[in-house]
Write the structure tokens for this entry.
Amino acid sequence: MNTDAPDDAVGDPPLFEVNGLVKHYPLTEGLWKRETGRVRAVDGIDLAVERGEAVALVGESGCGKSTAVRAALRLDEPTEGTVRFDGDDVTAYDRRQLRRFRRRAQLIFQDPDSSFDPRLSIGESIAEPLSIHGMTDRGRRRRLVEGTLERVGLDADDADRFPHELSGGEKQRAALARALVTDPDLLVADEPVSALDTSVQADVLDLLDGLRSELGLGVLLVTHDLAVVGEFCDRVAVMYLGEIVESGPVDAVFDDPQHPYTRALLASVPTPDPRAARPTSALVGEVPDAADPPSGCRFHTRCPEVIPPDDYDLPKDVWRRLFRFRLRLETEFSDADRDAVVALASRELDPRVAPEDVADDVLGSAIRRAFDLPSQLSDSRAESVLGRAVELLIAGELDPAAELLESEFTSVCERDSPPDRSVDDNHGAACHLVGDETPTRSLGGE
Amino acid sequence: MRDRHEEMRDPHEEMRDRHGATTDSATPEEPLLRVENLQTRFHVDAGTVRAVDGVSFAVDRGETLCLVGESGSGKTAACESITRLIEEPPGEIAGGSVVFDGRDLLSLSPSELREIRGNRIAHVFQNPQGAFNPVYSIGWQLIEAIRLHGDYSKAGARARAIDLLDRVGIPNPGSRIDDHPHELSGGQKQRVAIAMALAGEPDLLIADEPTTALDVTIQAQVLELLDELQSAFEMGLLFVTHDLGVVASVADRVVVLREGRVVERGDVADVFERPSHPYTRHLIESIPGRKGAFDLDTDGENR
């Protein structure tokens, strides 16, 4: 999502603003570390967080969300892109400025255990950032620590306890206290409650929410948990394979999701209502390798709504299965898999018949069954293509079969990267299905 | 509430509960698994922890029972006591009975128990990594499990392994069978772990937080898979989880545990709609997304 900063931005710049952020990890080979490819962990994203606002960055594991925030905070140097904090260019900061920035932008993690030194008391751990940032007065440090502990709902006396004496929820509160002790403006929280019990989660989120409104903190929440986003955040950005595919106000995105990926994510969340329909796995497969992302729209290999070509007239679900069949043949389908399909098919028919003795037409329909395809496509031209491909498959000619399908059954989704389209004020998505032709402003903009 | 709490733990009351609606006095058919007044303790330096303190429940064939609770509720200790997977010592099963298909598992010898474990009762854990040996291909391990439980030729076992991988939704099982565990994603590993658990065609599958480490999209796939397999194999499923959203979508009946005791039990719809214990109510109320604008129910039609 490489769009310019909002051109109608008036007044103060946002507290934290990321534009065109890229983080690639080179894959190298040999003694000279020749670059053979790169993992496109984050591939041009925009984000903005205002004071007092909670923004969520959501996506499946491996989508690059944690890498994105690490790069945005310069914990890993970004490959490209600009990061602005209070209008200043963070990417141009020198060491001293960076240290000041670190005090004002704090990070908390999923596992509170790993953020405490077991040999230090809670108070010493919380005071650590203060001494690092140059506060030498012990008494003053202690007073600040105690005040912060009370602010997060712990006792001032807890300063003298050790990490192992605290429960998981208390430890996460203490981690929050440590982040708050330097009086930051921005809090970046990477899965802060996913390791906690549900009832404790609610308490910690309530606390976070209170602090946000009380202190005017900007919060960037990285999470996979959409229910938490719905409860706690103002805006949300949905990330898939290094890109933001949809962003906008939480209510708008959740009530009227524009991107098929967002819809699938929402449909996968189990509803705490036993009479509701069980969540459906709208998505097949898993997030592809970021070193070799799919062409066009990166989601097209898993998309339940992948767009059919104009020249065939097929029902949507049949087209989807046909497209999936094509992708299966293209990616890592081997002779062994063909043999397995044939063996399974023939065993299903009659276990006594050897696979090589099964008639071709019977095998053909077995293959169609194995790939969830109808025995006859409604479109006669599509049917003849599929028929030929299945024949090639039976004859053991995998590559020609895959090539035939690839040349006949194509989608705009794999050819062109979808542009960002805005649906509504501040709500936009990058999908060919989103009809609005008006170019969007920055999706991450305010 | 207090009375109800005590009453819940009365085994006789419980028998009535279980059979009350359907088979009252006629033929009290024995359930597949019946756990009565189970007591599991851990002897640690600081003293004795009563992890499971008089828990009773039953699972029938083709039925899913969810054990729900937060950390420290004893749900994992309870389900690991069934096939005595807990380490003894420091653990100790101090009392109660576990009757599986008419046999008391707590009185079996280690070798008899091993026979039942894997063959008739299989486990799936939160972290599938532990189910594999990293130096062997998944096919090798699956084939080993298949031949251990049944009389298969090498080729027959391989064909069955491919079949199982296919059933748990591993794409291209003919080539993936030679992959090593590290070549699989987390979701695929859990699928293969399920395939291994199914190799012996168990009567009871005990799944302890099987989807907790997975993304929601993959979780939905695995829950759907378990549901399909359960009806295909007519298994009893004992599902341990802390996630009430998952409970609502998989359970037939629910047992809510707290600090080693049962605080509530019942039909899943009853427990969610009319929770009688304040703790259950508290759990249900603290589900994120329950309050506020985000109403998941409305998202059903968006596919």
In short: Chain B has a mean pLDDT of 80. The two ends of chain B are 43 Å apart (CA to CA).
